[in-house]
Amino acid sequence: MPEPLFVARSYGENPGATDLAVAILGATDMSFTVGNAASWLESHGANVGQPLGTSGPFTVVVDAGMLTEEHILCSGVNTSTGVVTVYNVGGWNGRGYGGAAQAHGTAAGLGLVYPIWSSPDSYEANWAAFQTVGRVTTKGDVLGATGLNAFGRVPVGPLGTVLTSAPAQPTGLAFAPPGLTPTPQGANYAAQNNDMVLATAALTVNLPAPATGLVVGVKANYVATHAAPVTITTPSGAITGPGVGSPGFTGLASILLGAPQAFVVLVAGTVNWHVVAGQADSGWTALAPLGTGWTADSVNPVMYRLVGSRVTLRGGATFAAGQAAIMATLPAGYRPSNNGNWNALTLETQAAATYSVLVQVAPATDPVQPGAMTVSVSVAGGTPREVWFDDLSFAVD
Fold first, then answer.
1. Taking the chain, what is the end-to-end CA distance rounded to the nearest angstrom?
2. What is the mean pLDDT of the chain?
3. What is the pTM for the complete model shown?
4. Is residue 365 in some structural domain?
5. How confident is the model at residue 252, as a pLDDT?
6. 239-255: buried (b, 16+ CB within 10 Å) or exposed (e) per residue?
7. Does some domain include residue 39?
8. How far is residue 4's CA from residue 10's CA, in Å, rounded to a whole number?
């Protein structure tokens, strides 16, 4: 076992000098006796008043100032009998401590014996100051262990960053954004744990296989659209959560971020990925093709958008002929999941007359025409020229 360094030690404020009561005969002596050790007591800490050695080892000088002077690291003293025990652990002992030679055959009653501050004490104090106060240079710096009895500086990070584990760094620590590491990407990317993927163009983010504790964030950091979205896919299981429009709550193999700044944060379980922040966003896309008798408004055509689990409509279309005609069919994933048709009643005013418009969308479970969007228009007082669908919405789960 090596020399004990950076361990708790014992110190006394005024331990008295005394003589050897019995000669130290050789290098194998692991104890010696002094004439008077009554004052060899600890003066600080939890063990005030207890014999030196209670808190840790202490150093004494034997035959101070003589040719036979020796420094000895000791582990204890009996203040009544004067017997001092030499530190002796794992094959290493405290004789000749700090480089001072062992004084074999030191006689009794010739030189003074008393506790001292040793060169190893000074080394430890200097090393501790160098490794702490001596390491930091900037407000906010912290220290991290680089190995046994050694520290390194961890430079303070930018505003908003937090201290986190970083095994690749010498200290194992680094300042980083909370939880996730921003990772700008402009092409298809295989995400890693703790990535915050900042997509700068339409691309596909492939999630890792689900495993408990994995976390990945994805953000559309460009002008994303339904035609040019970020697609997030999982190689197994499904993507689930309140921000995912999944009929029957079963989850989806992929989700879209089709609007600027849309984002999700996903946490993996043993089987699936779960959206815990943000939500999928398909972006706006035109409802097409329209059925017979319908013509999209030239400025604000009918469009739909899935945000999380809710589809919202906007825009208008001209109704030219017929009633209860199928205006269009919404694609899979954008249809109500309830067993009955989704219904909405809106009012349209044309030429100072108000007409009722009933909108029905067949659910995903409809056996004949799932997603069929039927519009019925009252004809009392005439036929309106255009129907508007702004802010009509329904849930898909």
1. 67
2. 85
3. 0.54
4. yes
5. 87
6. bbbebbbbbeeebbeeb
7. yes
8. 13
Q: Is residue 194 located within the same domain as residue 252?
A: yes
- 358, 340: one domain: yes
User: By residue range, what is the domain housing residue 291?
Assistant: 286-395
The string of pLDDT tens digits covering residues 348-379 is 555 555 566 667 777 767 777 777 777 766 55
Please confirm whether the linkage preceding 289 is cis (ω < 30° from 0).
yes
* 382 assigned to some structural domain: yes
Instruction: Confirm if 144 and 171 have CB atoms less than 8 A apart.
Output: yes
Element (H, E) at 340: none
Asked which of 278, 311, 345 is the last residue of a domain, the reply is 278
Cβ count near 388 (within 10 Å): 19
Q: Residue 30: which region, alpha, beta or left (left: phi > 0; alpha: psi -120 to 50)? A: alpha
Question: Which own/partner pairs from 388-392 qualify as long-range (CB within 8 Å, at least 24 positions apart)?
Answer: 388/315, 388/316, 388/346, 388/348, 389/302, 389/313, 389/314, 389/315, 389/316, 389/317, 389/346, 389/359, 390/313, 390/314, 390/315, 390/316, 391/312, 391/313, 391/314, 392/312, 392/313, 392/344, 392/346, 392/359
Co-location of 29 and 118 in the same domain = yes
Statement to judge: residues 186 and 92 lie in one domain: no
CA distance 286 to 304: 6
Q: What's the pLDDT band for 320 if we cut at 50, 70, 90?
A: low
pLDDT value at 395 more than 70: yes
What DSSP element (H or E) covers 255?
Answer: strand 254-257
Cα–Cα distance for residue pair 222/197, rounded to 1 Å: 12
Structural domain includes residue 334: yes
Query: Which residue, 94, 123, 152, sits at the end of a domain?
Result: 123
Shared-domain flag, residues 300 and 380? yes
Polymer length in residues for the chain: 397
The yes-or-no verdict on residue 381 having pLDDT over 50 is no
Q: How many structural domains does the chain have?
A: 4
Within this chain, do residues 345 and 323 fall inside the same structural domain, yes or no? yes
165 and 191 co-located in one domain: no
Q: Are residues 111 and 198 in the same domain?
A: no
CA 30 to chain centre: 53
